[in-house]
Amino acid sequence: MFDILPSRSRRILVCGHRGHVVDGHENNRPALRRAAELGASLCEIDLRQTKDGRLVVFHDDILDNASTGTGLISQLDYAEISSFRTRARNGLAIDGQPIELFADILAFSRDLGIGLIVEIKDQFEGTAYLENVLAALRDAGMLERVLVSSFDYVVLRDIKRLEPRIHTMGINYHRLTEPALTARSATMDVMNTDYPQFSADLAESLHGADIGVSHYVPPPQYFRLRAGYGLDYLETLDALLRAGRIDLLVCDDVAWAMDFVRACGLTVAKVDAIS
After folding, report:
1. Helix axes 29-38, 254-263, angle to 10 degrees
2. Are 32 and 114 in contact, with CB atoms under 8 Å apart?
């Protein structure tokens, strides 16, 4: 099973947010491949559903911002979407990639030897959507090598009811009065908190309830600029990692994250090597 508390043995999971995205790719094979080459434990990907009920890997609800297409994914059949190619949000020149089916990305990630965080983005009624997600995970042999994540904690509760073996992660942007109770209410295995809301006491509350702690941080240039004004969050992050407060570090720049956690004396855990 997925080790959600590697900090207890001086290890940490490193996750590429949408893959390794700083070269312009996201949610596609080059982004995942490069993250794996750099040593990532997992990659985060995003799910959307097409008009004809196909699950595709893409972040936005519209195609306009990160592909050669236009329109709402939910209003287009996959046959239409499959003709479009990805493009970089940051203006970098990249070779456009297909917008791929979830099943194909699952198989690709399995063969790369990396785990996945699968973020469910769509809103929906009933359980058919979640049953499709679970069927794809089972068919790919990836059920126990993923975290299913969402901002919608009802989704996390419902998918755990459908498949108790699945591991789930709630995404949190807030300071919470009772982090562990919030996580338990949604049957989360892991809670992710983004910078700057993360804190040591939040991590302690979650660890006290045997809930894994994930932390998303922006790319390093974000912190370099602020360090010039006297705000050095990387010093704080170093202390948090050394103290074992974080189990999963998520970042757009996998190379930087790998170097940072190793400089803190931690071992990067591999999903295929944990039981």
Report:
1. 20
2. yes
Computed on alpha carbons and rounded to an integer, the radius of gyration of the chain in Å comes to: 18
- What percent of the chain clears pLDDT 70, i.e. is strictly above it? 98
| DSSP one-letter code for 164 | T
Kindly report, residue by residue over 198-228, the tens digit of the pLDDT: 999 999 999 999 999 999 999 999 999 999 9
Ordered DSSP codes for 220-266: HHHHHHHHTTT--HHHHHHHHHHTT--SEEEES-HHHHHHHHHHTTP
Q: Which CATH class is domain 6-273?
A: alpha beta
Contact predicate 84/69, CB 8 Å: yes
Instruction: Quick: pLDDT tens for 47-85.
Output: 999 999 999 999 999 999 999 999 999 999 999 999 999
Phi–psi pair at 154, nearest 5 degrees: -65, -40
pTM score above 0.90: yes
Nearest to 263 by CA among 220, 218, 199: 220
* Residue that the structure tokens 């699945």 belong to: 166
Beta bridge partners of 101: 56
